[in-house]
Amino acid sequence: MKKRQIAPLLSLLEGCIGKVRDESHYIKALTHSSFNKSDNNQRMEFLGDSVLGLVISEYLYRSFSDKMEGDLTLMKSVLVSSKILTAVGKKLDLVKFLRVGGSLSQDRMPKSVFEDAVEALIAAIYLDKGFSAARSFIHEYVIRPFKDELSGENYLNYKTLLQEHYQKTHKLVPIYEVVREWGPDHKKNFEVVVKVNGQVFGPGRGDSKKDAEQKCAKIALKRLNLL
Question: Which fold has domain 158-223?
């Protein structure tokens, strides 16, 4: 890939971070492991994830002085979620610039590829232009468009946060199981456990399956030190 092939993306980024100095960082950020097994964006994902986490944490700390650590952790999980990063990747139209191989193509691109590419792109900006430029990009493309996701208590979806955690770390989906129910049909109560990665968390109890599952997910998040 040459600079002219990613020129539209670089031009878009320059509107936010200023003149790009070394396009090789960006080319690597857009190179998936299916295209090149040894020289791809996997290490950049690691760096970009850390930069993203720091910028989001700083924003939340400064913007929500009334929130305690647990709430801030949940809010951060929303802004760094697969859903948000995939949306950013699509907004940047990264599918046009990603270098992929094997069975992957523009028509068959898993969400995880967008997510990883956005994290790698953040690393590219950080390596090329420094922390201030990376912060500007994150505020422009992650925080500003999606901060309404934090309004009210929309972020308190424990099931979503638990699923995001395991999809990102283990590529697994938690399974919820009703282990007990009691009470009359019009006023039933439920006890639920969640199973994932060989572990069982819970139980969560509630007057609906949904409520019991949320409480169970919250227990799991606390056990995992994510709350």
Answer: Double Stranded RNA Binding Domain (3.30.160)
